[in-house]
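Below is one such record:
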Amino acid sequence: MTDRGPTVIVEPSPDTPLVWFDIAIRGGAALDPHGIEGLHRHAALLARRGAGGRDRSELDSTLDGLGASIDVAVSRDAVALSGLALARHLDAVIDLAVDVLAAPAFSPDEHARLLRETPQVLDEIRDDDSALATRWFDWLCCPGHAYGRTSLGTEASLDRIERGAAVACWRREVVADNLVIGLAGDIDETSAGRIVTRLTERLPATAARDVLREVTVAPPPGRRVILVDKPDRTQAQLRLGHLAARYGGPDTAELAVAEAVLGGMFSSRLMQEIRVKRGWSYGAGCALRRSRLPHWFEIWMAAAIDVAGPAVALTLELLADYAARGPTDDEVDFARSYLIGAMPFHVATARQRMQLAVRDAVFDLPVGFTARLPEALAALAAADVRAACRRQLRPDDVVTVAVTTAEQAGEALELAGAGPLAVVAHDQY
């Protein structure tokens, strides 16, 4: 591997005395070793809890004194260090960010504390039916897929996280040529170059590191229903979907229109059939998950428990018809106009433009890919969208996850035509 340096995105905007920065470290939770899920999250949070000779309290108070922030986030594809600073304090805040990247304390006390705190986050997810449905759907949609494993971890995997493994993970992936650095706000190209040098000069230029590669995983054929049994529910949090195309692949523009027509607008088919006509759920929508590798096409809603079965049955009918026939010409025209008209709201600020460009870089997409999507949308014909629906939607292989009470909803879900029903305890995962 050659020394190619970080990927850098700069979006100047001198009309505000603020600078935002995002530092994406390619890798992310999908690279957690099997059985040690949660390692990347643990390493990132631990690195933020003290660095450069400051403990957690001293680092936080120094940032507070500068009116600044540095936060970490973990996705399947990257660990992100993001910050905000007044332009006049940028150098001081960047120094702190460099310490987090290059000289985290990895305090044994903080390591132990974080291991005690994370199970509480698991408990919070189990209390949140929507988050619980997403967690189970991710796990079961396509068993064996890199994105199916939890980024948070499980009680068993958290018990296996060792401080040394977190240190090794951070050291292996926090190298200059593995970074995507985005800067936006009151900064010019010259200042940005100086900041990038400071962010990377204390890091190894390059190192051997893992890369998440696309591995063909065949989902189990046919439909399946998993009822996540939770007592005393009045609703059923529903997730339906299957493994689909990669964001950035050949059908990206077509699928953007397809998801808008099916479940991306208030006038979408799901909203009209589920909410407006029947009042079964306050909302219903769908989307292709945006990630570096192929991810899920997912439909979601929260139906009243007494109509959970009929809601699933109707949704599967709508999806089957949509996969076969696709949207009408008028629906394509309206959705395309909506998407093109909405795009300026997603790129209105320098920070938004920077964040989209950072995401594109993490996904290994061409520079400006997302910003140029309106051009691709404008060139689409309705027949293109219909053909993409036939290629990408698989209504006969849908996985349905319902977080609800089995005693009240189990029989109706079994009769919904969604495939064999399995019942699991809500705290089993």
